[in-house]
Amino acid sequence: MASRTKTLLLAHGSSDENWRRTFESLAAPTLASVPDSTITYMELCQPSLQQSIAEGTAKGYSQFIVVPLFLAAGRHLRVDVPKMIQSLETEYGVTITLTPPIGENPHLGVAIKAVVEDTLEA
Amino acid sequence: MASRTKTLLLAHGSSDENWRRTFESLAAPTLASVPDSTITYMELCQPSLQQSIAEGTAKGYSQFIVVPLFLAAGRHLRVDVPKMIQSLETEYGVTITLTPPIGENPHLGVAIKAVVEDTLEA
């Protein structure tokens, strides 16, 4: 059987329910369009990255791609998340690939321009 | 003379030079397209919001629109930035309008889907 890959959109997490709802809306078009994708959180929200890896592994996924819903790489993405991933790979015997944060892709700058234009026209 | 409006793209700020470069790239399409726009920072980078308001006021701007380059509103946007803005309005005698964070506009979710599709095709 071919190994199955799951895509995890990784948000920071917050105790603020509105914050979480914004991220769920941000993820919605991707989750509706990309098979085997879900949203997960670094801290303060569930499912945590560990819960998502545990659940995915139990369902037969052996590879995970983690796409950070962060505009840029700060300490979390440079240090904390890679450490978490290394530990989870060992614990669950899976391969987890961390991609650059979404803000490093030119699509985001183009979208920001559209948002600002919307805002100024409103 | 009609009052002049300046658009400030407000990023969080970081001591990490790569982080700052990512935000400069994110802002570039907007700055190239929207007249009287610039990037400014809440902390750790310059120009600070205060510097940008001071400079804009000196150049004759009396209205500012602050568009947060944040995916969602956490404590900074709910509490800290409104406080800074209120204080700057009083100090400089200008009007400063804070818009929702970019992540609350549907363009962002669509862009994230495009980024994830790029990532999975790569």
UniProtKB/TrEMBL annotation, chains A, B:
It comes from the Bacteria. CDD domains: CbiX_SirB_N. Pfam families: CbiX. GO terms for molecular function: lyase activity; metal ion binding. SUPFAM superfamilies: Chelatase. Gene3D superfamilies: 3.40.50.1400. InterPro entries: CbiX-like (IPR002762), Sirohydro_Cobaltochel/CbiX (IPR050963). The keyword Metal-binding applies. Keywords: Lyase, Metal-binding. This is Sirohydrochlorin cobaltochelatase.
